[in-house]
Write a structure and sequence with these properties.
With 374 residues, the chain is of the alpha+beta class. It has 2 domains: 202 residues, no CATH class; 152 residues, Reverse transcriptase/Diguanylate cyclase domain (Alpha-Beta Plaits). It has 13 helices and 7 strands. The chain has a 5-stranded mixed β-sheet with strand order 2-3-1-6-7, sandwiched between helices. It has a two-stranded antiparallel sheet with strand order 4-5. It starts with a helix and ends with a strand.
């Protein structure tokens, strides 16, 4: 069973294929219309078979117009919609190829249309070559399309009065078409692989730019963006927004006595513990720098935020962090503040208030929770 990461890669790959297919579809149908006019003119098809000429002309024209609609679905609409769109467009393309193959068969088999054979063969070679180059996005479908366009020439020429050299040339050219199509298919798959790799690299860089590499929680940049977003939401909805600023007490002693590796491990274990305690929908935990962390709590008033902060503080006392060196008796000072948008407060004011409350907790003895304004 594929995970969501694989599903996202498949969706992006399919969206890229749909966009490329759309780009290659636009002008192709009109050339079949022109090709039909060129082929039918010398053979007097319009005069001798007016109904057939009209029906074929309308069919080519209708298929050409069908290439322009509908628009490519957005990748957000899901793989099913994208695949359905691709199947429809391929149906139009293959129907055009089949129609041309039928026209070519008619021209080759009907002696009254012999005047259009040269033009029909030239158009067939051009269409089959273009198909092999442009529609190799799906190998089997492309092979089917080229076969429907080109095989009538290779199979039926021996039954006409054309020179043997023409038949041999057309037959040999079919090998070239197969080679070109398979090469184009491999090249396109390579392009998709490269696109996937570049997109994944871009996404990884974006993620790394917003994640603290040591603890795996959000970094200060991400926290600032989340703070701005939640402040805007609080103003629009009128729901409260609380912030916690947490600072480990006497953390310098950990580095001095146990070493920086132990200090790093301590920060990682602390971040894990805070994640464990934060079973709050929409909450946002970040490392703001050094041993300081921040938490955003949408929908929390001062009382609820203080209760959660107290549970975090007590957790460190009751269940010391486990390091390789053994259990670590460590405490944390926490400042709590709540946004007051009616007073014109924004994210900066909320952060300063929570930070001020945290320094109050430090000044009053550490291992405390203090609420700004209380």
């Amino acid at each position: 069973m594929r995970g969501t990461g694989d599903d996202e890669v498949a969706l992006q790959r399919l969206a890229r294929e749909a966009a490329d297919t759309r780009q290659r579809l636009v002008a192709g149908g009109l050339f079949y219309v022109l090709g039909w006019f060129v082929v039918s003119a010398p053979g007097q098809v319009l005069v001798e078979h007016p109904l057939a000429w009209s029906l074929i002309s309308l069919a080519f024209l209708g298929l050409a117009i069908a290439r322009f609609r509908p628009a490519v679905p957005a990748d957000g609409e899901g793989m099913a919609r994208l695949q359905a769109w691709l199947d429809r467009q391929w149906g139009v393309v293959l129907a055009t190829a089949a129609l041309w193959g039928g026209v070519l068969s008619w021209v080759l088999l009907d002696p009254h249309l012999a005047g259009g054979r040269s033009a029909a063969l030239l158009c067939t070679i051009a269409f089959a070559t273009a198909f092999a180059h442009n529609y190799a996005l799906r190998r089997n479908r492309a092979l089917l399309g080229v076969a429907m366009i080109y095989l009538p020439a290779a199979l039926l020429l021996p039954h006409t009065d054309e020179r043997l050299s023409v038949g041999i040339t057309v037959a040999v050219y079919s090998i070239y078409l197969a080679v070109v199509l398979l090469r184009s298919y491999r090249e396109y798959q390579h392009q998709l692989d490269l696109y996937d790799a570049l997109r994944m690299q871009r996404d990884q860089y974006e993620r790394l730019s917003r994640i603290d590499p040591l603890t795996g929680v959000a970094n200060r940049r991400s926290f600032s963006g989340a703070l701005e977003h939640h402040v805007g939401e609080a103003r629009r909805s009128g729901r409260p927004l609380a912030m916690l600023v947490l600072d480990l007490d006497h953390f310098k002693r950990v580095n001095d006595e146990l070493g920086h590796d132990a200090g790093d491990a301590c920060l990682v274990r602390f971040a894990d513990r805070m994640r464990e305690m934060l079973g709050v929908p929409g909450s946002h935990l970040a490392r703001l720098g050094g041993e300081e962390f921040g938490v955003l709590l949408p929908g929390h008033d001062a009382q609820a935020a203080a209760a959660l902060a107290e549970a975090m503080r007590a957790s460190l006392v009751q269940r010391p962090l486990q390091l390789r060196e053994g259990p670590l008796a460590l405490t944390v000072s926490i400042g709590v503040a709540v946004l007051h948008p009616e007073a014109g407060e924004g994210g900066d004011e909320l952060y300063r208030a929570a930070d001020h409350a945290m320094y109050r907790a430090k000044a009053e003895g550490r291992n405390l929770v203090r609420v700004e304004g209380a």
